[in-house]
Amino acid sequence: MTNQNGKVLRSEAWFGPRDLEGFLHRSGLKNQGWDEDSFAGKPVIGIANSWSEATHCNAHLRQIAEHVKRGVIAAGGFPLEFPTISLGEFFLAPTSMLYRNLMAMDVEEMIRGLPIDGVVLLSNCDKTTPAMLMGAASADLPAIIVTGGPQLKGNWRGEELGSCTDCRRYWSELRAGTITQAEYDSMEEAIYRSPGHCMVMGTASTMSVICEALGMTLPGGAAIPGADSRRRVFAERAGATAVDLVRNNTRPSQLITQEALENAALSLLALGGSTNAIIHLTAIAGRAGIDFPLSKWDELSQRVPVIANLKPSGKYLMEDFFYAGGAPAFFKKILHLLHEDCPNVNGKTLAENVADADCHNDEVILDPNRALYPDGGVSILRGSLAPDGAVIKRSAASSNLLQHTGRAVVFSSPSDLHNRIDDPDLDVTENDILVMQNAGPIGGPGMPEAGFLPLPRKILAQGIRDMVRISDARMSGTAFGTVVLHVSPESAIGGPLALVRNGDLISLDANEGRLDLLVDDDELTRRRSELETANQTSSNGKPDRGYMHVYNRHVMQSQHGCDFDFAVGNTPVETHVEFEGG
Ligand code: FES
With a threshold of 0.70, does the pTM exceed it? Predict the structure, then answer.
């Protein structure tokens, strides 16, 4: 296949030449049973598969890949499936986020190195989707993403459950003594009962809708359950679309634009989506060469109602969202806020794609005039405790705590919290603010989802289920509560969070976007010099080899998406090359 300049597809550089190199490349496919007619002169579509038994949300992607292949072949292309690193939330220690950038590099370099003309990205669990989008944006070869879809609703004794919002809710009840261990154990099979990602509006669900808002997946694909046959039909369509993307030389850089990123951010806000996705979207923007600062979120959040009535902010689950019309119906309800002309991988604009979308359940996807929250699900906070910003998910918080001043109860790390939170002698009341240090990008390391600090058992026993909690960590998108996250600069690099001591007063005003440590400057200066002395005398126990060597030196703070400083931007792969074969 040639373009208008007479250049041929890049895959021809591998499979075209009648020389030793071409001989070896063709042999590598014939060795797997392919006839030369199956691939000669056809667009080669890579299928980057993050299937893994260690990532249960992605464990069905091998089947999905087979359906992508059908679509590629039917459209006249040749599929070439290859594995990528896979990042599962449940099994990966210390946290999957530590490896997101590693996976993004893997995806980028495999796209760059393999004999492919375009790529279908198969992702699902939280970090796999942003990692693939980041890698694809940097390589800038024609690409489409196919997520594996959400799980079906959990059902325990007739009660619909969502992972992992309800695992957390019942965990608090177990700790409060209102259910038994046996009852809690019996939920394990009842909640995780089908292929797919967590089915509340957590990070994976948020990122799936973001894929659609960015135009990087076909319309309607975000919410089809993993167990639904329509997910496989969708995968087949995506395979065919990938061939079209190559034929038209449509690249991620034509889709991931400033306007599309704003559509994605507006969607996240109107979903009451995961705060993690703020970090991921910032990183994806960076890979596309676009600065997407926290101030942008300030600006956008003020005009977006939360209209997705989904847990953890609302009541329903992704299966309900799909039956209600999914992302197209959702976009249509906020179309007046979105950039309507942004293109999709199918070649149509957003407005064209949602023109015929109907909402089948106005209780799940609300009309803006009946919004769950009228003014945005997320607030950006700044102040003396977070000079470079912090985030709070207002839609999942207790409204009576959004303006609160309280006494700090400080934990120096996640392990310190783990060891002391249930100490009967812990000096804590329901009006205090729980503060955790050293859980940011460097301190974690990897910025673990430790920001959903558990309430002390003795507070739970009083019937209290929420307190203000503050850290430089992230929080699972499935969690809830008045939780301030992503405090920047993080404590491990000397941010003001490191200076907080037990008994200090902290003022949170989410309505005004403020987070302040009410301690006078002289005292803070004294504490800072004490801290610097302590840091100079303590040995840094961080490993200084391998991946951690790179990570510790190059990871950026949360307001920059926690990407590596050297990975920002893109270096487009040539889609067509001069053909030198004879
Ligand atoms: Fe994979 Fe929740 S564990 S999305």
Answer: yes
